[in-house]
Amino acid sequence: MRKGAYAGAVRHLAIVAVGLAMLYPVLWLLASSFKPNQEIFAGGGLWPHTFTLDNYRNGWRGFQGISFARFFGNSALISTLSVLGNIATCSLAAFAFARLEFGLKKLWFGLMLVTIMLPYHVTLVPQYIIYSQLHWINTYFPLFLPKWLAHDSFFILLMVQFIRGIPRELDESATIDGCSQPMLYARIIMPLLLPALITTAIFTFIWSWDDFFSQMIYLSDIKLFTVQLGIRALFDPSGSSDWGALLAISVLSLLPITLIFLIFQRYFLDGIATTGLK
To answer: What confidence tens digit (pLDDT) does each residue in 91-102 have?
Structure first.
């Protein structure tokens, strides 16, 4: 008994040690955001010797007369539109694949799965050409419009597996009561699909908020910059960057996705755990 208890204590200590090692960069980021610039790289200690909020004030002020409030608003707009688009169109596509019968259904489903394996960089050039011809470069359309066209196959597959776990007897009962296919989708499937929808919303928001590559490709007007582009603009390759402001804004950029994950964590775990289960 003692041997088993000793082994369990060792395992817990090992898990705690690994967890602290993984969290150390985040703790360093948070602690350094309250340090003066000359103290940030002066030592390896976490606790600031001189506590200051100037980094947050200077960072929030932004650059070229544009504060980070605008950049946060731009990121929030893109992420919100992306979330709404994925929830609406991916759920419709998933309902069609899981419940409806139509010609070449298996072929279209297979092609949809193939797109998951395509690296983003493979489709970047043709997409850029199309958006350029539509005069959408330096606008937000390339960043959120694909989400309104059921662009993310991963979420379609997630919802298909979840819908397949919903008993078809519910569909049959609703149909007998005079429920049409649109009503079946809206009144039966969507309420039961809530955990998968929240999982989709969380992932979409995080990926859209953290996206840097696409925003760098399509946006060049400073007024359209997102938080990620704003942080990049604060960085000076010559080495004279205001590191305190950079770290402070980086901490603030983590707050929205952290809060969203903590608030909807239970639904997020339910959506992952129950996907594909009968």
So the answer is: 999 999 999 888
